[in-house]
Design brief:
Blueprint: H1 17-44, E1 48-49, H2 54-61, H3 65-78, E2 82-83, E3 88-89, H4 91-115, H5 123-126, E4 130-134, E5 140-144, H6 160-169, H7 173-185, H8 192-209, H9 214-226, H10 236-244
Antiparallel strand pairs: 1-3, 2-3, 4-5
Length: 245
């Protein structure tokens, strides 16, 4: 499982002056997306949002790419985010990441002092050593420590196309629709975690859309493609709106 850590979230963050400006302009969506951004910065490990990746991020956040870009520029304008040649960042998040790095380094050095260069005692080095236990009659008996052997597991590498095809051909109609959405948007994910996060953002809409017939969905998609103002900004919610008009 992917390793994850926490970052501090002040309990009164919603009343911060800059957060209030975000809430005033973008309502609760802005509040949520701001913390999505912080989570992504922490996950990357360098505290940045990269402009070239905003398309995929906007999908995982459940907003349009243009909306997200406008939102980030607004955050830069009010000073809650900063921007340089690499991308967008938050100074407090950078400090947090640097602090975690120092803690990790301190832990490594402490382990070296305790274990003589190893983070944990090495099982192979313990092989053959014996530990003495006192029995009821005070005599000493020796019991050799048993070495634990790990059973090798040959797990196939995760593949995006294989997973996508399994969704498209599976019996779960909601995931079929999400798969068709990813395919229609030409989206590609590098890890299973990224794909699952993006899918969860659209699962509720996919479940609502699944109650309609394929004919209704196809008819709505035909109308959406004819609407030049939508371009690539349509979502599963857009399809639902066209069906229920």
């Amino acid at each position: 499982m992917k390793e994850s850590f926490y970052f501090s979230h002040d309990y009164n963050a919603r009343n911060d002056d800059k957060i209030l400006e975000i809430r005033d302009k973008y309502k609760n969506d802005g509040y949520a997306v701001f913390f999505y951004c912080l989570e992504t910065m922490a996950e990357r490990g360098d505290g940045y949002l990269i402009p070239s990746l905003l398309g995929g991020l906007s999908l995982s956040y459940g907003v349009g790419k243009e909306w997200l870009l406008e939102f980030l520029e607004f955050c830069v304008k009010i000073g809650i985010l900063k921007k340089d040649d690499k991308g967008y960042y938050n100074s407090r998040m950078i400090d947090h990441i640097n602090f975690r790095a120092k803690l990790s380094q301190a832990g490594t050095e402490g382990a070296k002092k305790r274990w003589g260069g190893y983070s944990t005692p090495n099982a192979k080095e313990r092989k053959g050593k014996k530990r003495k236990y006192n029995t009821a009659d005070k005599s000493a008996e020796e019991f050799p420590l048993k070495e634990k052997k790990d059973t090798p597991v040959n797990k196939p590498a995760w593949d995006f196309n294989t997973t996508l095809n399994s969704w498209l051909t599976g019996k779960n109609k909601a995931y079929q629709l999400i798969g068709e959405f990813f395919k229609g948007k030409k989206l590609v994910f590098n890890t299973s975690e990224q794909m699952q996060v993006a899918a969860k953002r659209h699962l509720r809409a996919a479940m609502q859309l699944a109650v309609f017939t394929d004919e209704q969905i196809d008819e709505a998609m035909g109308k959406i493609k004819q609407n030049s103002t939508l371009k690539n900004e349509w979502t599963l919610e857009t399809i639902i709106k066209y069906i229920t008009k």
